[in-house]
Design a protein that fits this description.
With 159 residues, this protein is an all-alpha fold. Helices cover 60% and strands 0% of the residues.
Amino acid sequence: MLIALLERQGITPGWDDLVSGYDFGLLGPAEIQAWVRPRWDGPAARRLADLEGPGLERFEAALWEAATEAAGKAPRPGGTRWAAAQDRWRLALLRDALAAPLSPEALAVAVERIYEQVGCPEDMLSLWQRPSPWEKKPGHSDQHVVENFIQRETERAAS
């Protein structure tokens, strides 16, 4: 459960995290509905939480309606709130990867997967090194570089 990943890292998930997490393919309807049920009681949130079967075809629209009802508006790709949620996801996933005992090659695979899932701003490009194609070596990531990136971004977000 990736909502729990945010919570374990001291991040209180909000609607921006749900909308962006759903868009990135990190969160599915059941996980979002389980988070919404005990926390929100507005009509749109109840409709979202109660969707099932064929009604799930309109899950995304219901999610945006519930987010708008609860937060005044839903985050939009490219917007400030969306970017902040994207950063929270990116840092949470990087911290989670660092918590596992991964080799530099396995960490590179995890970092690349995060790039693919939630996007890769230019500041993340240095987290993964790919050798030249003729070298026939796997990519690698330096744990200290990733740790420093997380620290820098955490401090930036706090200021």
